[in-house]
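In response to reviewer comment 3 from the previous cycle, which asked for concrete evidence that the modeling workflow produces usable outputs, we include below a single protein chain processed end to end. The sequence was submitted unchanged, and the resulting structure tokens are shown without manual editing.
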Amino acid sequence: MKNQVRVAGVAPKAAADRERPLPELEKVSAYIRSRIASTRDEDLCALFLIDVRSSEAEQEHTVRRAAGVLAAQFRASDIVARHAPEQLLAFVSGRLTEQSVRQKAGELHAALQREGVDAHIGVCLTPGRDMNLDEMCSEALNALRQCCTAGHDPVCVHTLSNWIESHLLSPSGLLSAGTLLD
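The workflow returned the following structure tokens.
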């Protein structure tokens, strides 16, 4: 039998969804922070933000369908939760590569489309110890905004190099040569 993952913050639609309860949504952040803190040097962390598109009347039904897709696409050890009324998140860590994360995001988008769910996916991929959860959420949100405004690609993955470009090398965040040498 395939592992079933419940999504924190999404009401279950059937008793079968209650097989493996996840922590309350408030505890999800603390759990992700502890996972980040316990990552090994060779591990990477990926935070997926999935923006579910639907009419207000269909929103809860559409988010439930999307949650079912996420539950089937991620491992039981991964964290899947509701981030906002129209957004879901998934957190994974371990021996990841940029290619595997891009592939997972593409597969996730294709699976959502097969279920009739219109969505955009923004992902932040980073060595876990290099960023905190708030920075990862911010960067995943930047990736989500980029794919929403670009209009051509429903999936956008930001890596640590994207974060450095947007935060440290932007005009508002320029570093002096002295700072870099310190």
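Strands lie at 44-53, 79-84, 87-94, 118-127, 155-159. We consider this sufficient to address the reviewer's concern, and the full set will be provided in the supplementary archive.
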